[in-house]
Predict the structure.
Amino acid sequence: MRVSELAIAIPVVDRDTSAVAAAQIIARDSRATIVVAGPDGQSLAAISAVDVLRALVPRYIMDDLSLAAVYDERGADEAWHDVPDRTIGDLLNDDESRILDILEVGPDDTLLSVAARMADTRAVIALVKGMPGDTVKFVTLPALLDAVIHVGLGKDSKASTP
Amino acid sequence: MTIQVILALVVFAGAYVFIATEWVSRMTVALVGAGLMIIIGATDDHGVFFSEETGIDWNVIFLLLGMMIIVGILQQSGLFEFLAIWAAKRARGRPFVIMVMLVLITAVLSAFLDNVTTVLLIAPVTLLICERLAVPVVPFLIAEIMSSNIGGTATLIGDPPNIIIASRAGLSFNDFIVNLAPIVAILLIVFVGLCWLLFRKQLRYNPERVERVMALNPREAIRDVTLLVKSLIVIALVLAGFVLHSIVGVGPAIIALLGAGLLVLITKLEPRKIFADVEWETLLFFVGLFIMVGSLVNLGVIEQVGKVAIDAIGDNYFGAATGLLFGSAIVSGIIDNIPYVATMAPLTNDLVQAGGAAAQPLWWALALGADLGGNLTAIGASANVVVLGIAKRAGHPISFWTFTKYGILVTAVTISLSLPYVWLRYFA
């Protein structure tokens, strides 16, 4: 299997996108990461969904986790009304965010080659460069694993699905 | 003046410039400076490790280490958060009353624990309370920083400069309580009045928001009751050891280490949690600093400066105390008060040795000036820098000048009030 068969278009945000808007995309598409484009429109980096979540939790709670327990149910719900007005750019500048480099692969690369490189670099997403047309396409980790299982692991293996 | 002395002075002055400008970490500066002092022959291995006059002050290092371990374990219990929320509820949501209670809690905790840990734990819960009350958090944070610096002045363990002074001067925990706690109590009362003058217009009472504070449950902040009880028992024993130092005949550093050891033993925490809050960089900064200052002592530079100072002062020790009080406040507001006091301590020791009992108040003038001077600017003390960082991350930035305009006023008032105290207490 060639990786171009797995490549899909996914939403790309920019530095000015708010953390709330990014969270909506993540929630809607059940994504583990979100891709950020630079000023030139080229893919710049990927941010983990957990880091987007971290941007939404009031900062003083992140500084002192025990404070989350002192709210009652109503107060805890109200705390979300004051979500900090942070952007993806703020997250990229935050030393505590885990910025993930985007691995670049070619459309003719084999599944094994891309799987090996993603495993080696611990990348959860890869940009497929050189696809026909203008659309920017990516290989995501779930799609890759699905293909791996479909192509090889399911056949004459001892693995069984629960 | 020999080439060696000139080189040592260049190294020392250069290190001060780097520490003040923070171009590189202060630990790196102090250790590189110490290394250069050894290379130029200003000190040697015996002088560094074994000399009381010119070497590393192990009493200071191990007292800090012991207290860092104890405080690091205590802070995992949730006590600080409990106290702050309890205070806000007792004040029934009235902002100024809450501010006063937080100021007093911060000051008392800072007197017995280190200032940075205290503000690091009080600041997030302050943000929570202010968010619940819909009142601006900046006045609260500024007030807490300043009360931390004032409260820390009261005891031997409250502020690192006091630990250095105590070790160099041979002063006990009780000496600090007897000589500094009374003026600190007065300064705190005056500071509360200043808070009312400076911040009252920003602290509007909003009855509709009070319910949101009253709904908070402080008991939930306590993460581990057993750990809290064990920590408080050990801290009580350590403080008793400090107070009874002259009877038990054991120095503060050993008492702190025994307390830390006991707490480690009875809590059975894993090493990662025990040492999580030990600031190794700070301890190594002290090590480098002691070697650099010790080198100047070894070369006779401090003695020469001391002789000049003794000739200039004569027997006018009140004049010297006034100069030390105001001079220390200004210098400590601009550069870190730790290297300043580390340098001034051997010099002050020469003056006190020459003047006897009449010159003893110079130690208290140095402590008051250096500790209270930390409030002068936004970079005057570590607690200031830490809280300004928390405020910025939380979306409530406090600019250098916003802090400093309050700092100049508070420092001017507290230092000016300390002067008549020193005069009435020791010279009148």
Notes: The longest strand of chain A covers residues 43-48. The beta strands of chain A are 12-14, 33-37, 43-48, 99-100, 103-105, 125-128, 137-140.
